[in-house]
Amino acid sequence: MFVFAGLPRVLPAGYGCAPVAEQSGPVRVCVVVRAGDKKGGDSKPFVVLRETLDAKVFLGCLLDAAGRVQEWLEIWVQDLSGLSNALTAYRGVLTNKMLDERWVARCEAFSTLEGGLISTGWESVNPPLSFIDLKKLDVIGAKDRKSGAVWSLCQDEALLASKGVPGYAATLSRHLYQPELGGETAFLPLDVIGADPAAMGVGAPGEAAALNGGGGLMMVRRYCPLSYEQFVDAITGVDGEAGPGDALLSNIAATAVALPAGGKAVGEARTSNGWLMLGAMGSSGRLVEALHLKLMVFAQAVAAVRAATSAGQMPMLNVAAHSFRIRLGEGAGTVPLWWTAQTELVEPGEGIELPIEGTQAKYYLAGRGGGLTIYAPAGIGRTTQGKGWLRLRNVVADAGGTILEGTLSTQERIVPGRNDLLWLRFAVGATRVDLYATVDAQGAMGAGEIRIRTIPQRLNEGVVAQINSALGVPIPEVNFEMVPLLSTPCDLYALGVLAVRTLLVGGKRALPVALDELLSLAFQASKQAESGEDLATRLMTVFESDKRWAAALGPQALVVEAADANEAFVAIPPRLWFSTLAMVIRMFTGLSADSSCRDYGDAPGGGVHKVFDGVLDELYALLTACRSLIVSDYSLNAEVRGVVQECLAGAKG
Question: What gap in Å lies between CA 93 and CA 615, rounded to an integer?
């Protein structure tokens, strides 16, 4: 079993743990519970590590018979409440069946990684509903105290239909029922009760808390103690972010980098045993090693995203620094601690394919829209949704289906991009129609209007007849949403921002400042693209033309110990650094002629994951160059010494 070095084995005061299910045996999978006040309970009894659109992730542990923590865990529980934050078109594509299949595929992908998954059987079979008794710190079943019947997740399509409620597989609706009562059972909609133990008669507020109150699928993974940014900041030599707000998580992160031999803390590990280059080498050796270590963990992050997109053949569309965490080895002295770092992708992708007939392009939807983040390109944030009036002008019969032409009038400002689609939902009589259309913003005759033409879609004859009768009639309450053409170039852009965070942020320079300066450098270098010189050479020319570039984007940003750019360039060969900056610039989609991808839908043929192949090749070449500066080649050194000796002998003669 893999065991973290230095991790606390006993829960500190204020925390307890409870089994996640009824288990036999000396070792149990438990969830960490915050101790409540004397009146019982805590408003947030569990330590939430993260929340995704379809899951909540809690801190857990593997507890032995002596009550010692053998491993810190992530307890993943399928939870659909996060979908309330998703775009309408995104939710319209998903079903319970699709979410369950994605969960199983996600678990299978994690299981292929070393130490990536602890199999429990809950990955593909829904476990019983589970609640935690906050006083006894024990698991309790979802039994109604009045009827004595147990609540369970209903997946019986016939029973759901007989009760007149939406089915399970083809919808996002989930209902709880009591199988023991047969046809007399009541149905509780999960999206209404929110797995409230009081609503199910399981326990009063403050007595019981829902761990998996909806009976969703679960999985258990090993917990990585360090965030990506914490590790990078430790290499840089700054305190960086304050870390997780929870005291236990902060304790785990701090002790994860303590060396068992001497129990040294983070600060000492930075300057001694954590490094291959010791203090005697000075800042020059530390600069080269810092570059290598940062490129190493970043290359692992890129490789992890490539593997995820290759497995699902769709973009992630939510890549950010918090998508990754760092696992450290034991660091017992055989290998320096920082060199044992392993980057792991901890947040699954949110991208889904939009099934559209009649178009060769593949459209993918991001789960969330509207909010801006520095890791998301403007194409993702361009999503617009709202309501308007639709006037149909023409109905065209096509070999691929029916095409509608018309005008959409709305007060929303719509700025469509090239190849973007407009999703439309409206009612024709008692029939709901969902269509996708291309937009001609210039063809509209009035302000606040856009001309649309739908993609051919097969509609039944009755619906087509109703649409023909509605020609020229303004149709109110038309829901619409802009669907930009997005693919893995969005993820490549996000990784480019992560590269800036990894290599150029430190000391007093924040990420927005470093990113702005790098994009300015890219723009300046693109002016000389017609010269025919490679990007690294053009970057060197820009640096030589204005010394401010070296102060802003020189290799001294790698560690706080470096005095200035001149000193840093003595340790880091200029060609190596400019090649590194060139690699980062090429990751920014659509930025200039140097960019690897023209736009956010420019995924290469033969697999969306291939967009990352070029940057990985460059990263491995850069790592090889760094390694040659850290670990010398004995044969090459012997050859150089031989040439020097011959020259000296000739000079003496």
Answer: 32
Alpha-carbon gap, residue 87 to 548, rounded angstroms: 44
Task: Tabulate helix, strand, coil % of the chain (nearest 5).
Answer: 35, 20, 40
Give CA–CA dist 287/292, Å, rounded: 9
Say if residues 104 and 96 touch (Cβ distance below 8 Å). Answer: no
The phi and psi torsions of 408 (rounded to 5 degrees) equal -105, 125
pLDDT at position 74 over 90: yes
Contact 303, 609 (CB under 8 A): no
Question: Strand 175-177's sheet: what is its strand order?
Answer: 152-153, 175-177, 188-189
Q: What is the pLDDT of residues 230-288, one digit of tens each?
A: 999 989 988 655 455 677 888 888 777 754 433 344 444 444 557 776 555 566 778 99
pLDDT score recorded for residue 259: 41
- 483 vs 347, which has greater pLDDT? 347
155: which residues sit within 8 A by CB, 6+ positions away? 126, 168, 169
Q: How far apart are CA 435 and CA 559, in angstroms?
A: 54
3-state secondary structure 539-590: HHHHHHHCCHHHHHHCHHHHCCCCCCHHHHHHHCCHHHHHHHHHHHHHCCCC
Q: Give the separation between CA 555 and CA 573, rounded to whole angstroms.
A: 10
Predicted TM-score (pTM) of the model is 0.84
Whether pLDDT at 193 is above 60: yes
Three-state SS sequence of 454-511: ECCECCCHHHHHHHHHCCCCCEEEEEEEEECCCCHHHHHHHHHHHHHHHHCCECCECH
- Cα(157)–Cα(144) distance, integer angstroms: 23
The span from the CA of 233 to the CA of 321, in Å, is 12
Domains of the chain, by residue range, sit at 15-149+202-222, 227-315+317-349+488-634, 359-483
Q: What is the mean pLDDT of residues 404-409?
A: 89
